[in-house]
Every structure is written in structure tokens, then in C-alpha cells.
Amino acid sequence: MGSTATHPRPQADSTPDPAPAPAEAEETRPTGRRDTDGMAVASFILGLVGLLVLNLVLGPVAIVLASVALWRGTARRGRALLGLGLGVADLVVLAALVSVDNTVSWGLAG
After folding, report:
1. Which residue from 39, 68, 83, 102 has the fewest beta carbons nearer than 10 Å?
2. Cβ(83)–Cβ(43) under 8 Å?
3. Residue 46 contacts by C-beta under 8 Å, 6 or more apart in sequence?
4. What is the rounded CA–CA span in Å between residue 110 and residue 102?
5. pLDDT digits (tens, 9 = 90+) for 5-30
6. What residues have CB less than 8 Å from 59, skipping those under 6 apart?
7. Which residue, 104, 84, 90, is CA-closest to 58?
């Protein structure tokens, strides 16, 4: 029988990989969902405010924001649908008030 020589085995590095720095972790996170949720909320707020003032501007902006949020798949689907409905309502209110006094500008004082 021959001599049995023991050869040292190379040991694997047992230290864990360092955690990514906070700046790196923030860069890799998906922001698409959060952006679309913000668009849904913004469309709702702009549509609501547009019922009172600047409905010629805020109505179409609310419609566009809600449409983009729905197209991108927002988690706040109900809020986006409300924003879409309020944006359309802004334009309907504007059309009704314009037909009453035959001018694009209107006021609550009459």
C-alpha cells in the first residue's frame, strides 16, 4: 500500500457578497408603476378642480393623464377611471355653459 498524502483542499470564500449600496438599489427599482399611479391621482384631482375653473385646459389634461395611466396598467384603476370621467364632465360642463351665454368665458356671477 502506498502512502496516503493529504492535499489541502482549496476553500471557497465564505464571506457573503456585500449588499448593494443604497444608491445602486434605488437606481434598479422599477418606477413605472409608481409613475402611473401618480398619473391616475393627478387626473382625478385635475378633473375635479376642472369642474370649477379652467375646464377648457384641465379637462383634456385629465383625460390624457387617465388614458396614459390606464394604458400603462396602473394599480389605481378606479381613480384613473374617475379622472377620465371627470375630464369628460369638464368638457360637458363647459359646453353647457357656453351654450347658455354664447361665449367661451363664463363666470358664476352671471
Report:
1. 102
2. yes
3. 58, 61, 62, 65, 83, 87
4. 12
5. 666 666 655 555 555 555 544 454 45
6. 47, 50, 87, 88, 89, 90, 91, 94
7. 90
